[in-house]
Amino acid sequence: MDVIYYNGRRFYVFEEVYKPAEDTFLLADNMVIRPSEKVLDLGTGCGILAVLSALMEGEVTATDVNPLAERNLRMNSELHSVADRIIFKLGDLFEPVKREKFDVILFNPPYLPVEEDNIPVGAAWSGGSSGRTLLDRFLSDLDRYLLRRAYMVQSSLSKPEETYRMIEESGLEYVVLDRASFFYEKIEVLEIRV
Length: 194
Ligand SMILES: C[S@@+](CC[C@H](N)C(=O)[O-])C[C@H]1O[C@@H](n2cnc3c(N)ncnc32)[C@H](O)[C@@H]1O
Hints:
5 helices; globular; 7-stranded mixed beta sheet; 194 residues; binds S-adenosylmethionine; two-stranded antiparallel sheet; alpha/beta; Rossmann fold
């Protein structure tokens, strides 16, 4: 098991669960959750974004296809005394929350343009050959589940213009809140608004 820190807070990360990295932290730095807002953290991994949302007094549902995420999230939510504000649902994208709507949706998707069949480890970062497999499915369905705003991360490696086009096509609006550059890619956080 690994340990990482964000703003002085400790998070445990199981083996075979995504280890929070620059993409996670860029999203965390920019998301705003208001007390009592209903939050969906898609692909929660170790649960860091769910826990931070609950610390801002959101009512959080966290999902993942990786069954190990449930125990990892529980450990971190108990560590930060917010377990009563978070529920976990196992499953693919919006499937586990089919009949619900959320004030805020968070998504740090697997976006690297590589094929990877190694579940659950590969599911943490592989976005299929274009990098967009999951992102496109997310953007196609987002407006049906979103009441207020969503925060998502994307990479220069996975056709960001396609994201802007899909958001506009579904009648939503977006702003780029923040960017970070690395030697092999640029990443950005979008806020998508109803
Ligand atoms: C890049 S990691 C982000 C983890 C965490 N939210 C963070 O920011 O550190 C992507 C997460 O999405 C999950 N995931 C992959 N495919 C998924 C799917 N179809 N539905 C839900 N979650 C999925 C992975 O298991 C992984 O935990």
